Every structure is written in structure tokens, then in C-alpha cells.
Amino acid sequence: MTARFLVLCLLLLCGLASAAPPRSLRFEQLSVQEGLPQESVLAIAQDRQGFIWFGTQGGLARYDGYRTVIYQHALNDPHSLSQNWVRVLHVDPAGRLWVGTDNGLDLFDPLTQRFRHFRPQEPAQRGNGNRHVRAIVDDGAGGLWLGTADGLQRFDPATGRFTIFHHAPDDPRSLAHDQVNALARDAAGRLWIGTPAGVDLLAPGAAGMARFSVTGPNGARAVAVQSLLADRDGTLWVGTHAGLEHWRPAVPAAAPRRERLPDNAGLPAGAVMNLYQDAEGTVWAGMRNDGLFRWHPQTRRFIGYRHELGDPHSLADNYVSALFHDRVGTFWVGTWFNGVSRVDLSSGGFARLVKNPDQPGSLSDNRVRAIVDAGEGRLWVGNDHGLSLYDPTTGQARLYRLPQAGNGSSDANVTGLWRTPGGTLWVGSRAGVRTFEPATGHFGPLLLSRGNPELDTVRYVFGDRAGMIWVSSKAGLYRIDPAGGAMRVFRHDPGNPASLADDSVRPVLEDRRGNLWVGTFNGLGLLDRRTGRFRHFQHDQRDPGSLSHNEVHYLHEDAQGTLWVGTASGLNRMQHTARGIAFRRYTRQEGLADDAIAAILPDRQGKLWLSTNSGLASLDPATDQVRNYSGADGTIEGAYFDGSAFAAPDGTLYFGGFNGITAFDPARVRPNGIAPVVAITDFQIFNQPVRPGAARPDGDVILQRAIEATRALTLDHRDSVFSLEFAALHFAWPQNNRFAYQLEGFDGDWVSTGAGKRFATYTNLDPGHYVFRVKAANKDGVWGEPTELAITILPPVWKTWWFRSLALVLLLGGAFGVYRARMRVLRDRHLRLEQQVSLRTAEVEMKNRLLMEQKRELEQRDERLRHAARRAEDATRQKSEFLANMSHEMRTPLAGVIGMLGFALRDRSLQPVTREQIERGQANAQSLLSIINDLLDFSKIEAGKLTVEKIDFALAATVENVASLFEEQAAAQGVDFRIDYARDLPHFVIGDPTRLRQVLVNLVGNAFKFTQRGHVTLRVARAGGEEAGCTEAGCTRIRFTVEDTGIGIPPTELPRLFEKFEQADATTTRRYGGTGLGLAISRQLVDLMDGEIVAHSTPGAGSVFSFTVPLCDGIAPALVPQAARAPHTHRLKVLCAEDFPTNQIIIRMMLEDMGHGVDIVGNGALAVAACAQTRYDLILMDGRMPEMDGPTATRAIRAGGPAGAPVCDRHLMIVALTANASEEDRSRYLAAGMDDFLTKPIDEDALHLQLARAIERQLARGVVLDPLPALLPQRPAAAQPSVAELDAMFGIAAGQPMAGPPGGSADDAANALRLRLRDAFVADLPARLGELHAALAAADADAAGRLFHGMKGSAAYLREMELHALCAELERAADRALWPAIRLKLPRLHAMLERLLAPADGGRSA
Known about the structure:
By secondary structure, this protein is of the alpha+beta class.
């Protein structure tokens, strides 16, 4: 027998050694601040609906998880609580709530929210102690047993009668003491009564009571009984002022077997105020000033829970006055001084191992940085105070402080631990690493210490299977051989990619294959211990299969050999694929509440448990299901330390953090699976609560009973805005409950909401029947059944069926009466109408005729208006055509002038004076061309599209340039030209010099045009008076004045002087010429420059035109040196598509002078064919050519050419050539596929730039080009081709006489060029005339326009201006198909051509 007992004891001790620590309780508090009427919670109960009720010294409170409803005594309300001191709450089997107060027994009616009062009737001399209700139990027959301060009472609710039992001194079977503190009724129906004199027993059917006295621990004196509990096992728990006893009742008449709990049972010797058994059978004891205790039957010990200073989730107070376990698993603890505490017993399963200031020998510090096994169920714990040997079951710890460091400072912080198979501990700290022998309690010498805590701090310690110790720090990775003391260091070498990735090293792991994995702050490394080389695995933001983050915190290998990597941003699962190693990521997107992983531990079911910065999480690798746990589930608060984790042999997991250790058996961690019940807790109309029984001003009662008990509700149409508040009666974590509600008949789907918005508001619902449904889920996502409330909204009187029926009858009756009266009136009116019809018929016919006449007049007026609109449109179109054609016609002769002047300037033998005159002529021609371009922009001015520049320029130089243009004209006319330029003007200003020069040229030109004698004066000065104001700082308003002594202007003509196409009178145009646009353009340009222009004139005396413009102070513009144009680097092969020989010659000469090869074709079809034979680098494409024009040829080349003859290069550069400078032409050519645009006359610089772009483009495409020699052979001094070369260009046979005298000078060379151009034109003329006659005969407007266009261009190069003007008129007529006008002008054209042929023929015959 003794041996068996010893074996049982040994097994029990082994079980204790390997058992997980007891679950700790994390309490949430409810105090006066959260709505309690008073701090002392004396009783707790849950009604049938699920509300929690609290009895306090200040009244009764109902709690729904979010707010409390207070019920207190009111003197003027007989249905209020009878007294505010509530000691007892009891819910009977019928679901009725009984309230025991210090003024009797109350019954709460949930339908009316009222109380009924029941008081015993006894002689007055006994006082009111019989109304102080201290305990209530059921009697098993529908009645109640009441324990009061003056006797025992049996109450029959059916009759309202009391049966009272008192102490009788002469009756030993009477009550031992009149003060009843506690009642308990066991399964056998026996009533146990606790009094200050002990315990009394009233058996069923017994005539008297049996008395049992209770003595203290030493048996010297009797002690009062404060609490009783008859548990489900038949044990009677007796709580006294001196402790707790177990009683095992026997037969009804026999005395029970009594046992006092020993001193080592964990319960202090104090007053046990409450005893309670929860739904799981656990017995709880609440004590006065010693806290709460939980009975552990396996160890036959109590586990205590006390209030701890600084821990808001400990028990609210140590004086426990009430205990209750509700139906959803929440355990409630009422305290005397600080409200009520609650904890969810149906979920969780975590234990918090923390420092307890009230318990000597507990953990010394809560910052647990390392945990390893110590054997026998104990742990080695490293924290900021040192190394502790800790027993999780008892909470006892022994502290070993680390020796002082070499510099004399204390090295208290333990940052890493490793236990060797022999039991030796390697202890890492901020000063390095040392060994510790548990047997002797001595520390070894300090290793890896440099005196720099930043680098000496050990972050992780690991031992491999070979016995080597690996130490991680911020200074690299160390391998220590404990046997020989050898040490090897691995550090990051920027020059060696196979070195350690970073010196900050954290976890080290040796997997089952012997691979050593090292986590750093720059990724994961795999160390080849033979070579010392690392293979790196790092984060790549472009590769989703890479590590989620480079900062590695923990490494774990699971039972299947899979490596898991915890990082600062996500958990990573290593996977071996065909492409190598990849990682599967688990982050917040996969459900983790926090993805900063601190440690990873497995449980026995194959799940992984993760500690993070904000809690714990479990991951099922098979399903990827994640569940998060936080302090609300019973874990420690806050973050966990990296690597601080340990899995015990019995399956218990330990995670160390900033605030202690979380310990748990994963098999015992469970969610709360009880679904919440939803109650509708408030009903409001227009944000005003509606109380049961409350009536409207008209006497209607909306709520007949409380909204919590209402199942159907009828509202009036006036109740257009109403709200329903609801609560989930689940108290595990009310703030995390979820809700969904729906008003059937209105809401199409469920509306989801959280605990912060527990109400639904509806406005202006249509009359009808609705059903409001609301359901809730608890903190673990378990949804309950919906609660329903039927709502009927009555229609207003005018929408009821009877009102509408009555209204319909009245409406029909009234309509019938009106109909009868109307019919009588109609009959009378019909007679009168018949009499008036004949008269009105004649009147109507007359009006019809009048209307027909008016209609014809309106149609004629409309026709005139349409005709006027067409004329206006024609005028607008003609104006645009006029501007475009005038620009084109003026540009063509200017092209010849500019071109010839350019050729003349090539003569290096020119005299300086001659060169200056030619350059001035060329500048004037360019200026005139610029003005012509501005004239083309007149339409832009009208449309508001023309803008002015704001650049720095020299004001004096601009004025001088304008003056130089008119010096020769002034001398020729004998007019004195004066310039008056003020000295105080700024040297440089900001504005548009081109537009300013254009206005000045216009005004000065007009002055010379209308002045035959006298003088013309140009004055420039600052504006004075009011005109001097300027909106910008540093700006000056400058007035430009042009004064002449010409013919003057009549005063009546001045107002319209600046209008379009206006001159003083018609004779001015005939005598002096002009279009009348000059002053209009000037006025609009001045307006664009924010200026003003005015004119004053006296007929016969002269005119004064002045304008002022604001010009801000500027700086000297940067001088760009006139460098010679750089020659091209490569030679291009250019194709020119141009149908007129004169243009062909000019282009050929320009290209060959620049060193490039050129082929000439006469139309677009030949250009496409040439591209099929030769690979060209650039095409210069004329717009209008016979057979195929430029845009059509471009599109054909871009398309690849015809199928039988594809082009060699469809992507070569194509540049348009045309004399038409409009934006429409440019857009049309670019849309056809051309790359750029050159206008005639061709500017050599612009052509040079296009050739340079073509070279760059071909080289970029990889096309091989011949290099151009650095220095090309120069032509003779005249820079002109010889006569033989010109003959070759123009196709003239060698030896053919030249139409003019030969000469060798530069002028002779220019004359030779012009004569050769004439000869080429004459040679080509018969063929062109033949084509022209054929086009006219066929009425081919396009061909005719093209031929006239070509003749116009040739005439410009030949300086035949009259012929040029006539060809321009004929081109416009051909474009508009005006054949009569063309035939009318053809004889004049033939006459001019004959005059042109005559000198040529004569020259040749000579």
C-alpha cells in the first residue's frame, strides 16, 4: 500500500513538472466612469433575455455591453425601486428577476420597466431587519427562500404570503441565529443556512432544523459563516471569516463529514465572502481583501488572482463582493470598492508570466529577451536584470546577476541564451558572451568584448551539432570552438560578394541537411563552412518570389524540412522549384494583424505560432488560415523580442516580450463559440427616446411595453424619422462585436456595422409593413440568429382606402353635376355659335389670305437673308484667299531676289561698298518677307491667336535699323528724315522687337508715302503725365511719334483710319497705292503689346502718329558669334522631286555646294520608281507635280511602294518643298507622312539643318554613310559654276552660244546663271504649253493650276514680275475652275511668253 502511494505521488510530481502554467485571467473593468451608479457591486445576475444586472449600494444597473441603464428609488414613483441598497439578485426558473434590497423584496417587470414590492408583515417591535434581504434561493416548488438580517423567510409568489422563521432561545430546533448571511439548497432538496452561529440544516419535510457550529483553525472559538455553496458533486463549501471547509453531507439526519482546507491549499486565512460554481464546474472563492481564488481539483489547490498596481487588467479590487458566470462564458467579479471585473472563460487559454511586486521571488523584470529549457519543467530566462531560473507553475524565480564587465560597469542585460547538451549555458549580453555553470552558479570569463556596447551586444547564440557555438552581433558572426577556444569571425567585405551580407547578424540555424543559415539585416545567407563563402537570398521588389524584407528576425525548420524565415515585414516559406529557391510570403494581405515577425514555434498539430510587434498569430500551413491573438485574448500587452521563444517538451509554448512571457498549451487555446443574442435597446423618434407607456399630446401611446420586449410596432405617418438602437449581449469583448441589420421591404441587403454604430435610422418610409432584422457576431466571428421587430407605418388620413373611396365618390358626383351644367351651357352656346359661324367664316378666309401673303413675304425675306449669309461667307473666304494668295505671290518674287542676292554674296571679289549694299538689300528683302509673313498672320490677329515675344533687345539699335531702311528713300525724295532719340531711355528693354519694328516701318513708310517735301521725324521718348503709369516694377511707357509734313488727313476720316481696308479716300489708293491694312495691323499689334496708338492731322500741313507701349528694363542679350556654317560629316544621296528646271537647278547647286549627291526627277511617280532602284538618304519632295503630287508619292513610299517594285527604304526622311506657306499646307504635308517642311525660296541654313538631321537619323538607324572630306574643293572666287557646268546642269549642248556677252567677272557669272535659267525655261516652255493646252481642253483644273504654279515660280527666278503676277492670277482661276477668265487672259500670257522668247532667239542667232 505504501509503495503504491509513493508511485502515485511520483506520477503526480512528474505531471506537475511537465504541466503548462495555469491560465492567467485578463480582466476588463467596469466602474462608475463606465456608468455604474456606485462602486460597490454586491450582486450580479443575467436575465432571460441576456442583460447583465448589477446590484449596488446606489441602485440597480442593467448592462448591455456598451451602456448601463440605472434604476433607483424615486419618492414620487411608487413603481420605482424600493431602496437603492441592493444586496441580492435572483432569476427564478420562470425567468423573473427578483431584487433583494434593504427595504424588502422587489420583482422587476421587463414589459413595463416597473417594480412590484413585497414586504413581510410582522410586529413593529422587531424593527425592519426582516426587510434587509441578504440571500435568495429557490425552494423547488415555485417559491423562494429569503435570508434576511432578521430571520429566514419562505415566500410564495402566487399568494404573496411570507412564512417566517426566527431564533427561539428555548427551541434547539429553531434557527440558531436570526441574521442569515447565506443560503444553499443541494440536490437532495436540503436547505443549508449560514449564520454567525454556524450552519443550520432544514431537511425536506422536517419539523425543525439541525445546527452545526463552525470553529476556527485551532478550534478555540466559533466563527461566523459568510457564504455557502452546494456544488454539483454534492459537496457543501462553507466559507467563514476564518477560511473554507469541505462538507460531505450523508443521510438527511446524519452529520456531514467535515474537512478544513489545509494551509498549503493556497487560500489565505481570511473571510470568504462569496462561493460560486461556474458552468464548467470550477469553484471560485471571493475573499475580503485577499482577492479571487480558483479551485484546481487536480492539485487540490487554489490559484489566486489579486489586484496588482500598474496592471489595469488585473482584478479591480481585492475585496470581492459578488461572483457570476453568464451564458456566453464571461465571468463577472463584483468588488466592494472599484466596480466589477470581467473575463472571458470560453476562449483564450493563455498564461501571462510577469513580475509580481506583491510576490517575493517572482520574475525580477518583464523585459524577457531570451528563454531556454532548464529541465524539470523550469526555464532559464534572460531579462534586463540578469539570468533567472524560473518555475512557471509556481511563479518562483532565482536571479543570477552577471558579473561586472572589465570596465567596472554592471553587465545586467541578458540578450541571448544557448544551453549545451551538457547543461552549460552560453549567456550573451551587451558586453559580449560568457558561459554559466548551473551546478556551481559561476560565470566564465567574458568573450568578444571590445568595450563598445554598440558592437559588443550579442543578438543571438546558437550551437550546431558539431558542438560549435555561433554568436551573432552587430560586428559580424563569430564561431567559437568550446573545446580548444579557437574562434573565427565572418564579416561583410564590400569587395567580396561571397562574404557576409551585413555585419548586423540575428538568427542562426542548422537544418537537418547540415546547412547553416544566417539571418542578417541585409537578407538571408547560406554558409559553406568548408570555404567560408555565403550564398545570398535577398529582397527584390521586382521579384515576388524573393524575400519579403531583408531584415531577418527568426529562422525555423518545420517537421517536413521546410525553412521558414521571419522578417521585419512578413513571414516567408522557402520553396524549391525548377528555377531554384523561391519564397512564399505571408503578410497583412494574407491576414496577419502584424507582419513584423519576432519568433516562430510549431505546435503538435502542425501549426506555426508567430510572435510579432503587437501580439501572437497562428498559421496553418496546410490551409494558410491565420488567426490573430492580442492582449484581449489573455496574452501579454505590447511587442515581443526577436528570438525570445521556447517550445517545452510537454508542448507548452513560451514567447518573451516587452511585458513578460506569454505561455500556453496550443491544444487548450480555443475561440468563443457561443453566438450572441441581439436585443433592441432603444427606440427614438426625431432623436427623442420613446419610453413605454408614454403618450403623445393627442393621447396615442406608441410603446405599450419596453422596446426590449416589443415584437411589433405601429407608427403614425408623422413618425417620419425614427431610430433603433441594438446591442449584442455577448460580453467577451463587446468592442469587437459585429452587426448586420436589414429592414425588409426597404433595404435590399444586410447593412454591416461595428460596435461604434449600433443603430439604424430610417426617414420618410412609405406606409406599409416592414420587418426589422438585426444579428451579431462575437469577437471570434460567430454569428447568431437575427432578432426581428415588425414595423407597420400607417398612412395619413388622405391615403387611407376609405378616404380615397369617399373622395372618389365626391369627385364623381361633382363631375357629373359639372357635366350636366356644362351640357346646358354648351347647348346654349351652340345656338349662338351657329349664328356667328357664317360671319366668322368670311373673316377667317380673309385672314387666311393675309397670312398667305405674309408667308410669301417671309419666305422672300429668308431667301434674301440666306443670300446675304452666303455673300458674307464668300467675303470671308475671299478675304482668307486674298491674304494667303497675296502672301504667296509676294513671296515668289522675293524668293528670286533673295536667291540672286545670296548667289551674288558668294562672290569673294566684291568691293566692300558693293557687298554692304547687297547685304542691305538682302536685309531689306528679308524684312519685307517677314512683313509678308505677318500679313499672312492677319487672320491670326483677328482670331486672337497671334502672340508677342518678350525678349531682351537694344531699343536704340532697333530704331536705328528702321531708320536705315528709309535713308535712301529720303534722299531720293528730297525729304529731310530726322531721328530724335531721348537720352534718358534705357539701353535694353524687354519686348517684341519684330512687332515693334513692323509698326515703326508701317508708320514711317506711310509718312514717306504721303510726304513729297518737307521732313519726316521719328521721335522716341518716355511718356509723360498719366501715360507714364506702368503696372509692373521696372517698366517704362515709351512713346514713339512719327511726324510728317505731308498731305494730311481730313478730321472726318480720322475715326475710321485704323479700320481694315480703310484709307482717307478712294483717290488715295489710286494715287499712292496700298491695301488699307497697314494701320489696322499696327493698331492690333500695339494692342497686343498693351499699348495705345493715336493720330492727329491737319489737311495740307501734315500728320502725327504716335503710340505708347510699356517696356520693362532688360539686359544685354547674349551675343552669338557669326561662325561659319560647319560642313557636314557624311555625304548623303538626295533625291529631288521637282517638275520645273529652274527650281531643279537652284536645289542642285545648293546640294552640290554642300558636298552631297543629288538625283532629279520630274514628278511623284518617278520619285517612287527611283526609290525602288536606289536607296536614298533624303527626299526633297515638291507639293504640286504632274502625274503624281508630293503627298500621294509620300504615302506610296511610306506604304512600301507597289507590289512589283517595292521601295528600298520606306522609313527614309522626306521634306516638303513648296511656295505655299500656310499652316493648312504644312499640316496636309505632315499628315501625308513627310517629316518636315521647307518653304520657297529655300534658305540655305534651313536646308543645311535638314541635311544634318538626315545624317543623324541615318546614322542612328545604322545606315552606313560615306564620310565627307574635311575640306571640299572650293569653287573659284566668284563662287559660281562655270558656263560649261551651267550647260551641263541645264541640259544645253556643248558649244551652244550663250544669250548674252561673255565675261569673266562675278557679275558676268551671275548674268550667265540668269541667262542659263532663261534658256532652260525657254527650252522647257513648248512642252509646258502643250500640257497646258491639253489641260484646258480637258477642263483639268488641277493640271492647269500646277502648270501655272510652275510658270509663276520660274518667272520669279527670271525677274519677270509682270509674267509672275499674271501666272498667279491664272493659278487662282484654275483652282476655282473659272475657265472663261482663263481664256480671257490666255492671249496676254502668250504675248508675254513671245516677248520672253524673242531676246533668247535673238541672242542665239547673234
